[in-house]
Every structure is written in C-alpha cells, then in structure tokens.
Amino acid sequence: PLSAYGGYRFLMLVTGARTPSLWGGVAYGLVPVLSGAVAQGRLGTVAAAIVLPWLAHAALFLAPQFPPDRRWRAAWRTGLLLGLLTAFASVAWLIAAVLAAIAVVGGLVSHKFAARSRMGWGPIVVSVGIVPLLLVPWSALTAAEGRGAFAWLAEAGLPAPELLDKLTAWDVLVGRPADLGAAPGWISLGVAVAALAALLRADTRQRVVHAWVVLVVTLAVTAVLSGLRVETPGSTDLEPLWLGFPLLLLQACGITAAALASPGIMARLSGSSFGWRQPVGLLVVAGAFLTPVAGSVWVAAAGVEGPLDRRPVRAVPAYMAEAAGSDADTGTLIIRSAGDRLEYDVYRGDGSRLGDDSVIPAIEEYAPLTELVGNLATAPRQEDVELLSDFGVEFIYAPPPTDAELVGNLDTVSGLTSASVVRPGARAWQLETEPATGALSAPRGWAHPWLLALQLATLVAVAILAAPSRKVAR
Prior knowledge:
The protein is an alpha+beta fold. It has helices at about 1-15, 20-35, 45-60, 70-90, 90-110, 120-130, 130-135, 140-145, 150, 170-175, 190-200, 205-225, 245-260, 265-270, 275-300, 320-325, 365-380, 380-390, 405-410, 445-465; strands at about 230, 240, 330-340, 340-345, 395-400, 415-420, 425-430. It has a five-stranded mixed β-sheet, sandwiched between helices. It has a two-stranded antiparallel ribbon with strand order 1-2. Helix 2 runs antiparallel to helix 13, helix 4 (about 70-90) runs antiparallel to helix 5 (about 90-110) and helix 17 runs antiparallel to helix 18.
C-alpha cells in the first residue's frame, strides 16, 4: 500500500490524470510481491519500492526550468532520499551516478547548462555526491577495508544466493529477479508491451523518452551486474547478486512510460479512421489494465508462500540464547553438517542484526577459528577446546542432522561436558573453561567517532537546506 500510494502521487504529478495514476500506482505497488521480494524476505527491495517514488518526485525539480532556490532545495531533498534509498539498496547510488553524469553531459551539450555556471549542473552533482557523506562511517569503512565490490552492489539483508536462479532475458522483461516466491511472468507482460507502445504516440513521445532513458541505463547496469559473481561475507565462494532493485526500477520506468502516454488514448483511438491501430491499441490498453487485476487476483489466491515461514527465530536452545543475551562474552559455536563439509558460526547477543552482513570480518580473519573447528572434527585435543574460550565460546551446538564423527570426537575429548537440548537429533556441549573477557568485542578504529560526528553534522545541514525557504516581507 505504501508503494502504491507513492506511485500514485508521483504519477499524478507527471500525468495530471487520475485514472492512469490509479492504474500505475496499483501496478507499481504490486511489484514487490509479484517479483518474489516479499516471499524471499528481501527487505532492501521492499523498502526501496516505498522510497523510490518520493525520490523521483524530488528529482523532478532538478530540471533547469525551475527557479534556482527551488532547484537547490530539490537537490538537498533528493540527496536525503537517495541516501535513504542507498541504505537499503546500495546499487541505487551507482545507477543514480550514471544518470547524473548523463544529465550533466546532456545539459552541457544542449547548452541548457552554462559550462562555467554551477547553477546548471551543481544541484544534480550535489544530490548524488552528498550520499557518501550521509552514509558514513559505513561508506568510508567499507571502502577502506576493500569491501566496496559487495557492499555497494548488494541490498540490505543476507545475500541468500541459494534462493537465486540464473537471470534470463524473460526475467528482466517481466521483473522477476528469481522464480522462488514470484508470480508467473505473463502477469507483468502487459506493462512491458505498454511501455514499448508508448514510444509510438508522437504527441507524448518527448516525455516518454525521459522514462526510457532511465530504463535503458538501468537495463545496461542490470546486464553488467547479472554477469558478476561476488564474494559474499563469511564465504570464499563467488555467488550471484540479488538484482531486486534494478528490476524494480525497470518496472517503475515501464509503468511511468505507459502512464505518460495513456491520457486521452481512448479518444485518440476512436477519433481516427479505422485501421490496424485501433485493435492493436485496444489490445495494448487491455493488457496493461489486466496486469494489476491479474496480479491482485494472484496475490489473493496464492498469497505469499515460501521460502520463508513465520516462527520465532531461535538458532540455539533457550538457555544458550539467554546466556548470550545477558553476557556479550558468552558465545555459542554452532557447527552444521552441510553434505560433505562442515559450516560454523558464532552466536552471541540476540543474534544477527540487519546490516551485520556488510561488516562481517574478512574470511582470512577467521583462519584460526576455522583451524580449531577442523581439529575438533578430525583429531581434537584438550588444548583446542581451551583455545575456543579465547574466541568467547562457552557452548558448542550441533543442530540436526549432526555429523557422526564430530559428535564422537566431542564426546570423548577432555574439557567438554554434555549439555541439554530439546530439539530431537541435536547435540550440545559446554566448555569447562570460562570464555575470555572481551574476546568477541571488536575494537573500533580511532576514526569511527569522528565519522559519526561528520554524519550527524551532514544530516542536520542537509535537512535544513532541504526545508522550504522562509519568505521574508520587506
């Protein structure tokens, strides 16, 4: 509903027609559900769908025909909203930077911007350039630690590459980043056809081309990103990216193009002599109209099924979670059997939070703990168990299905006692050695508080500059 309202508000501004705006708002509001973003729990895409229409609304006033005061206020407002959008879908900043470069170069070439006047290109550059300052210390630290490739291309939340399939041209056309949890692609085909047909209407073509410029740029970025494989946090494997936001933007551009060409379309079709345009035009209009109708019927009938379900998040037994929540130094080493290999992580506090995936230490920093887990699975010694306490581990938990060799080794090694579990097939042990104080609290660099201060000062300044100008009577 929030996405639909934002889409309706934006389309009312650019079309001035209520019916196309209502159609476009409903069609856009359904995109996060139909694309599978809701079913897969892709919070970055869902939040981006809410913010995107408001960002587009603010960016419209960067055009050179508006007064300077309004353009500069629009620049700061656009920067704030782009920063918020980038916090959930960081690839949005990359797309915005490309579009800003095209707008500046186009304005200079067409002489809409004076080459030596910052008034022309300044607001556009500021709206994009201010974003890294709004997102410090994250933007600075991810660049300093060499994580830009993943941090600036991924979205908020866990990557979950196991839920993704290879992206095809059909998926891009109908806005389906993955098949799992998504609606049938033919439901959204009407939007793509209507966006193409919008270019055929001469009287609205100039406005439709603007939406198509954004669409083509986004399509190019999507093509590049679909071929990338990046190293996800905590893993050395190269995995595909979730491209929810680029495909969301493609759908938004298609809906906008169709809405811009739709006012007066029925009168135009009925007012011309009968020919092939009338039946083809009616089919395009009917297909576009049926997209939100069929999407709504699918949502009502199928609902949101898998791969997620609603249940309390508890990765370890309750007493381990309580111990971890009351003492940050108390961690639980979780060792899972994954086919012919073992996977592990350390649970502490109240578990993983949103954003933890982008600040997980590099895989090389886990080498000593990885070696210890390997020793426990093969030939454990009491010294290995005692060394676990240096990593803030008090419990070891093996959820089902457990590895028989690992369980046998941990049952016989000194320094461990069996602990209780409720889940059938699971096993747990407690270390006899107390965990080291402060073992899991990573020290922050000296620059961190200064970067936070810079972020706060930038937010306050940009919010003031984005506020409406005060009219003073003289």
